[in-house]
Prior knowledge:
Elements: H1 4-7, E1 11-12, H2 21-32, H3 38-43, E2 47-48, E3 51-52, H4 55-76, E4 81-82, E5 86-91, H5 107-115, E6 118-127, H6 133-140, H7 143-149, E7 153-159, E8 162-167, E9 178-189, E10 192-202, E11 213-223, E12 226-236, H8 242-266
Amino acid sequence: MIPPLAAALFLVQPLVDPGDERLAALDEWLRGLEIDARVPTEIRGYEREGTAAEPEYADAAAEGLRRRLILDAKTALRRELPEGGELIDVSFPGVGVAVGTSDGFDERTREEFEESIVRIEVLAFLPGAVMLPRDALREYTSPDFRKKASSRIERIEDREGLNCVETRGVGGGLVDPMHSCSLVTELHLPELSSQHSQTVSNLDPDQFQAVYFKESLKTFVTVPEGLLFHYINYSRTAGLGSVSKFIGKRKIRGSQETALRELERLLEVPGPE
């Protein structure tokens, strides 16, 4: 695999035809998914100097981030890939990522909430992978794989129809331990499988950092000579300053690279010659 900087200079053709019916079905499924009522409730738990996020803002933010997630999924699976076969992007999109204008909301609360929203995206071609998308998704989202791919995960369990995860903190107080539960929904087509997850509750709030918002989508698509994998995630936990963002971005990227290498081993993808 060529170095990321070099790979970025060379692009290959999209592996999925933009008019592919599977992508149209994925888009339709995502647009039909309801935003769980508990999602904006968790956003309303965010406070700045005692001022909580307004209910109207929480609703608008949940809707705005859902639209971005759908657009990202629609765009990514149709775009070109670096010649190296993978793209990992970690960013802080900033104010406007959730709600485009203040729309009468408390401007400072909105700014501080959105300034620390993290966007993570991974797009990778997995050549030689012969596993069906359904099986690849099942293995990738299994507790065993998730714990192997992320050293932060302490515990994963199902509670009353929700998937709950407890994570360790990151050294130096960069990220505190978290314990939250998500509602998970899946789509399975003959040659495409996708899992959508939206965080709907926090457990033991006095002991763990709150997850005010987290929504993600993981997708595997059969393509000529392998599988295409896409992961998109938007989340808001603790407020982050410029130094914390710099360190956090590096750590998150490293974590995603580790998970991708583990995925390649799981799918028996041939290494670079």
